[in-house]
Amino acid sequence: MLLAFTLSFLAMVYLTVVQIMPNWMANFMMGTATLDNGEFLLMSKPSQAIVVTSALMLSMFACLYLWLIVFMLSYNSETTVNNLARTPDPKSLSYRVMQKFLPLLKRIQAQTKRASSNTAAAVVSTPRNSSQTSSFGSRISSFGSQTSSFGSRTASRLISDFTSIEGTYHRYYDAVLDFPKLIFQTMSLSGYLSKGFPLPIIFFYVLPLGFNWLISFYRFQRNKPDPMLVVARVFYLFDLFFAVFAPIVMLLYSYYNFNMDRANFATREETLTPGSFDRIARLFADPIQVQMAKTSLANLQITGGEYILVKCFLNLLGIYKWKKYPHLHQDAEVSRMDQGVTHLQYLHVENDFQHSSLQYLPPDIFTEMHSLRFVRTGGASGLTEYPSLKGLHSLSTLVMSIVRGLKQLPNLDDLSGLTTLYIADAIHVHSLPSLTGLTSLKNFAIFRRNEICCNGWATGYCDLTNFQCLPRPNEPTVQCVSDRMPAEDLAVVERIDGFLCGTNITQDLEAPEPSLESTDGVCQGVLYRECYLNGTRGICYNGRMQVVHCDVFGEYEKMRRLQITRGVGDKCDPDVEAWLGCPNSTAHDE
What we know:
Elements: H1 2-20, H2 22-30, H3 48-74, H4 77-85, H5 93-101, H6 103-125, H7 130-163, H8 170-194, H9 199-221, H10 230-256, H11 262-271, H12 287-298, H13 305-324, E1 346-350, E2 374-378, E3 397-401, E4 420-424, E5 443-447, H14 487-495, E6 499-500, H15 516-521, E7 530-533, E8 536-541, E9 549-551, H16 555-566, H17 574-577, H18 585-589
Parallel strand pairs: 1-2, 2-3, 3-4, 4-5, 5-6
Antiparallel strand pairs: 7-8, 8-9
Helix pairs in contact: 1-2, 1-3, 1-10, 3-13, 5-7, 6-7, 8-9, 9-10, 10-12, 10-13, 11-16
């Protein structure tokens, strides 16, 4: 038991650290610090008040578990059992609880007071003389004192019957303390089932929970006293497991079942344009593993006031019960999501911008979605107005890709928690909104065609001969502007070494889009094959999780060459990838 309490103390210390540094702890546990610049798991960011309150609460529980250890080491078994068996102190917690919550006790007290007041009223209404009144009043006072004493003794005896180990109604007292946690644990199991948790976790949770219910019913049916507290200790060991260790066991399961080819993904980060689809690590990880790790870590984090109340109640109840039962240590289509969807955390919309572009999002779709952490709208060339981002203080990643229909980007002032901002193909946006409110920004990239990179706003000089501003059919002509990027916004980009109008892809987006010729004609579904499209050499690859087609941008070819050199990723086939440097197996063996 001392070991269990020591582990509980350490677990509370660990949970305190999780509240203060959730993202760092998640990256430390799962080894994801290098993925998506430390924002791979997108941990929740509760308010500062919640963080401080939960950290203080868990620190208090750590101290209470430490006090339990000292309590158990300081009292011998005989003294403890004798203290538990005797009538409780009227000033004790159990006495006050029973006074407050037992209707029967209240009824006895009310009847006693009513009888006393009725007798006193009768005396006042029929006095005969002063001496008789005085004498009778003395008798009434004596009777009232005896009645009060009788009520006190009755209340004490009733409390003793409930709280004493050998009490007549002690099993009901056990049920009052046991059922809240059992119900909460069963509700947790229901939540795990609805979320589709892996069978090993479900089995691991169901087995002790079933034993917990059986032991609880056994205790309720048991009439014999348990002075050695054997049944109580077995039950509360299971109780302690659910309260403290179950979330950590789930986290360990996630850790040992989480697989991510980091070396392979490193080649993507070194070769692909910052902000591109194929550089977002969480999109290429196993979604089940990611969600399992995310949920396991979220179970350790307190994100709302209601969770603080539940956690506080359950831990106080557990500590109180353990104090009452100490160890005897001498014993061996985007729908109208704005209507009712308020807890959404991830929104990823990806489209074929040529044939099925995103056309519309309600302007107020994000108004009540204060829990949003990740938003990506890809292929949104038909979108003419972007929804308001007001109030999204928890948003961590925002990607606006191929937003060719926009002339103005949304205000970013409320995105104080934003760490990643990527903008691609904003070809009609004359300037960016203020970036000074992005106090948590770590990653910034604006790439492909963007008017601000050649109209003078971002670079300080207008160059209409730049590839990004060349005239295109069915597009308005780019005009030079006199406004310039504010120095404070430029400082934000430079502070994080952001990608702003650097050397970029110099092909229009329509050119490399999959076609019958680029897919079936030259690739025929074979990855990494050498191909030629309009006289330009390329590589057959399924970028953005699309069909395998001939990509002539050059980035995927560079990425695959690096993977072959380092021996990571898919095993190379010399019959297909000799042009990429894949060694011939026969020559290699010789």
